[in-house]
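User: Show me a protein chain along with its predicted structure.
Assistant: Here is one chain, sequence first, then structure tokens.
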Amino acid sequence: MPDRKWRKRGVPRLPEKLDPIIPSPRSVFPATLDVRGLLESGWRPAAFRQFILKIHSRCDLACRHCYVYEMADQSWRAQPRRMSEAIVDRTAKRIAEHAFTHELAEVEVVLHGGEPLLAGPDLISYAVRAIRGAAADVGTRVHVGVQTNGLRLDENYLRLFDSLEIRVGVSLDGYAEGHDRHRRHADGRGSHAKVAASLRRLTGGPFHHLFSGLLCTIDVRNDPLATYEALLEFDPPAVDFLLPHGNWSTPPPFRVPEAGVTPYADWLIPIFDRWYGSVADQTEVRLFREIMRLLTGGASRSETVGLSPARMAVVETDGSIEQSDILKSSYHGAAATRLHLLRDSFDAALTHPSMAARQIGELALAPVCLACDIHSVCGGGLYAHRYSEAAGFLGPSVYCPDLYRLITHIRTRLARDVARLKGSR
């Protein structure tokens, strides 16, 4: 790696006590994964290309469906509120080191939380400049995005993001009643009005080019088409519909384990039909597009479906290296690795059993998944949704019936259109 005089700011020390959490139950998958055997067989991990920075560990909303604060893992309580500049500097060095080692032409950094805008404009600016500066020294370009609840997205922040070329994703659960069902202030007040005002600032003037899309968590009590139409009002370049996080031990709302009912597929299918049948492209719905890519022989670009390796690492506010924070919905400590940027490189995380499990494709699927005719498309569903106390993460998604119904519905629509095109020749 080229010589560089890294910013010192007093070289930070490791916390006196690293999180004592056992990263996963020792007798179940992925703790039982033989990573050494995988390496000896010729498998090699894929380098990380996305780094999620938890620059602030607290939030200014109290969303009822939040996996960070409201579910099994409560490790946020021990995190510093704000990432220090010293940890930012070490993060910048580690990202550059990883990019240089793996000859990465570009990487993505996502500013996250908690609510990242609580970190303040000075720290955000410092972090982006430090990471881009370190990466530039090794010839790597850094694309930066921020995922926000939108409450603090005022014109000052928009000007800052414009100057720093930061793309902005906003969480919005549709129309006012549906959004305010979960995304509330601690005193119970809804947040839709403020978020909508922020979105109008983002989309209605000179900052629209910063808009990366909307993230919508599904509540099947909300009208699906009304939800979709409410999202389209802000002209999003993309929409992510998220299944509420849960698993076999702690089922998500209205998802009854072992039952054949499909409330989430039933909710999504009308939106797919509306989106797919639209004469003009209105937005990119990532879940639908990824399923269609997989059905037509492409590779997935998302860990939600498919078998492509997950290439993302999380940096917690204190500098700990963690897995996807969505795993916090599983059990206390599920995302932990015991690795820390002050001591460990990102390469050390690549061979952590839990990281490797999300990169080995079919080898991480349960026999029941491998026997399924759509397993290469479904990919077992989102990794966190497979968890059970008995089997760890070696099992089907708790949303298995919903995923099967949604994917086969899309497959049928595609097959019908392909047949029609062939018949018209």
